[in-house]
Design brief:
- The structure holds 2 protein chains of 2 kinds.
- By secondary structure, chain A is α/β, with parallel strands linked by helices.
- Chain A is 37% helix and 22% strand.
- In chain A, the strands form 6 sheets. In chain A, strands 1, 2, 3, 4, 5, 6, 7 and 21 form an 8-stranded mixed beta sheet that branches. In chain A, strands 9-17-11-12-13 form a 5-stranded parallel beta sheet.
- Chain A is globular.
- The chains are: A alpha/beta, B mainly beta.
- The interface between A and B is large, with 52 and 44 residues.
- Strand 10 of chain A pairs antiparallel with strand 1 of chain B, so a sheet runs across the interface.
């Protein structure tokens, strides 16, 4: 068997038993499992090649990059090969811009898909949402200057194109990916001028009770070795409590506070990072119930143990369900596929139960130690709700922290009402880079919990879509009736 | 601002605002431009401030460019191709643009 590739919207079949959105670790594993169970799942992904952000570029990656990126990246090769040898249908470069129930009675799901400049509406009995995570925004003054990227962006540039930042490179923030990227950049021969670590040492006593869980994690030894190497080879400033990026038309330096003193450092490239959070635009717009995860300080879909969301037929797998890393994402993708096979009557109940137990055990093992990392590397409050009034909170509409705070002081109760005052979250990124910050700011100022405040509402289309594409959708009898008052085709 | 490790090599050519740029097969338009030393891709719609790629994963919409005549494409999600015509964007698009005379 080989994967069947589709590159035109009109080549997409209108009805599917299982659609998988995303081809990162969770989506690929789900596709392989589902295909092994006899389904031909349709895998839709925005990228040109399978792998997601985790295994970005792996289909055309040479030995030098594999060396730099290490074993966690290399394991993606097996997964991508298994996918390519599966009976799945792959539609790369496809944007899923809408998702929801297909009918009033709640049976089946409908998807809006854009591919090659045309859109189609598809129906599916089951959908697995495997859209992964994105980096938590790290709003500081100057973070919109050209030359300021995220650490994830720095890693993607390395994965896809073998790019290494040059000149004075500064990494700032906190979390495992930041340190890993610093290490990889050094291996690739980059000059890392400084790592500005915003991790708060006061978190250590809070994280310690979770240490026993982490002792069994494969990341413990590797993490310790990596940190030791890093501290030995780059200028590592611990406990940075404030950060500002300097420059007129591009980044020229950083200014940061250590204790009571400010320091400056020239910079040509700044890479920011403070953890990853589930990507929720599609789940939210579909109407999935979301919940607040206090230990990771983010929202995530409210799911049953099987990965099933509040929307019938829709499961969420991988980091888009709950951030736990690539290996756990793979297992949760397999679990979601197993549930789909069971629901579609493709597997006998006895086979499902046994496999479910094995996967649940694997998942529990991979979650071990997560709580320790989450607690230790929780970004400090001043970086989640920016302290400096000049900071642009909404990058698209260019709204500052000062403006947002003034509006909250007027009694604005939530992010949806903030839109009416200032438009944050209403630009093209649709809140991806500000929604969480807005909730954190309202929480910090009003004392309410983020769980009560909620997230700004996400709506379809989840990415901007040309009107012509919507207008060009094949007209259904219902649509004709709504517009013309008759179901007769228009000449 | 970014350099290539020796393993990847620019073997195809596209244009950015009319100037030739070398790219490697598999590069996104955004990555190819960063490697060519171009960091400002557009000026913002609200204030006209310079902007360039931030997330490279399709979330931030700061790498928007006009590619082969289609405006506002996320250049981090578009694979570069030989002869591609890529143009920077400046502020908000005027409402008259693309309207037939």
């Amino acid at each position: 068997m080989t994967v069947h590739t589709i590159d035109r919207a009109d080549a997409l079949a209108p009805n599917h038993e299982l659609v998988i959105i995303g081809s990162g670790p969770a989506g690929l594993a789900a596709a392989v499992e589902a295909a092994a169970g006899g389904l031909a799942p349709l895998v839709l992904d925005e990228q040109a090649h399978p792998g997601g952000q985790m295994y970005h570029g792996i289909t055309h990656c040479g030995p030098e990059r594999l060396r730099i990126l290490g074993p966690d990246y290399r394991r993606g090769l097996d997964l991508v090969r298994a996918f390519q040898a599966s009976g799945a249908i792959h539609a790369p470069r496809a944007l899923v811009w809408g998702l929801g129930p297909a009918s009033q009675d709640g049976s089946g799901l409908q998807l809006g898909v854009s591919l090659g400049g045309r859109s189609r509406l598809l129906k599916a009995n089951r959908v697995i949402l495997a859209t992964g995570a994105q980096e938590r925004p790290m709003p500081v003054p100057g973070w919109t200057l050209p030359g300021v990227l995220t650490a994830g962006a720095g890693q993607i540039a390395l994965k896809t194109s073998g790019l290494v930042p040059s000149g004075e490179v500064v990494l700032a923030g906190t979390g495992p990916l930041l340190y890993l990227l610093a290490h990889q950049l050094l291996l690739a021969g980059a000059r890392v001028a400084a790592v500005l670590d915003t991790c708060d040492p006061a978190r250590i006593p809070r994280a310690l009770p979770h240490l026993p869980g982490f002792l069994g994690s494969p990341y413990l030894f590797r993490g310790l070795r990596l940190m030791a190497r890093l501290r030995g080879s780059v200028r590592f400033h611990g406990h940075v409590t404030a950060l500002e990026i300097l420059g007129e038309d591009r980044v020229q330096g950083v200014r940061f506070r250590l204790g009571s003193r400010w320091r400056e450092q020239p910079a040509d490239v700044v890479l920011l990072h403070q953890g990853v959070v589930p990507n929720l635009n599609l789940a939210g717009s579909a109407g999935c119930a979301l919940c607040w995860n206090e230990s990771q300080r983010c929202f995530q879909p409210r799911l049953a143990a099987t990965g099933e969301s509040s929307l019938a037929g829709l499961a969420v797998a991988g980091d888009g369900a709950a951030v736990a890393g690539a290996a756990a994402a793979e297992v949760s993708g397999r679990m979601a596929a197993l549930e789909a096979l069971a629901a579609l009557g493709r597997l006998p109940a006895a086979a499902v139960a046994g496999r479910r137990r094995t996967l649940a055990r694997d998942l529990a093992r991979l979650h071990r130690g997560r709580r320790f990392l989450d607690t230790l590397y929780l970004p400090p409050a001043a970086f989640r709700a920016p302290a400096d009034d000049r900071t642009l909170v909404c990058r698209c509409e260019e709204i500052t922290a000062g403006q947002v705070r003034a509006a909250i002081a007027l009694g604005v109760p939530g992010p949806n009402q903030l839109k009416a005052f200032l438009r944050p979250g209403m630009g093209p990124c649709q809140g991806r880079l500000c929604a969480l910050t807005l909730t954190e700011m309202i929480a910090a100022q009003t004392g309410a919990s983020p769980a009560e405040i909620g997230l700004c509402r996400f709506r379809a289309p989840v990415k901007p879509l040309a009107l012509g594409e919507l207008a060009g959708l094949p007209a259904t009898p219902e649509a004709l009736l709504a517009v013309t008052g008759s179901t007769l085709p228009i000449d | 601002m970014f350099r290539r490790i020796p393993e990847t090599r620019g073997t195809l050519t596209f244009t950015f605002d009319g100037q030739p740029v070398q790219a490697a097969p598999g590069d996104s338009v955004a990555a190819a431009l960063l490697q060519a030393g171009i960091r400002t891709f557009r000026t913002s719609v609200a204030s006209g401030a310079p902007r360039g790629p931030h997330c490279l994963m399709g979330a931030c919409f700061d790498c928007l460019l006009t590619i082969d005549g289609v405006a506002n494409r996320q250049s981090c999600l578009v694979e570069v191709a030989e002869g591609m015509d890529v143009r920077s964007q400046h502020g908000a698009r005027p409402v008259t643009e693309g309207v037939l005379p």
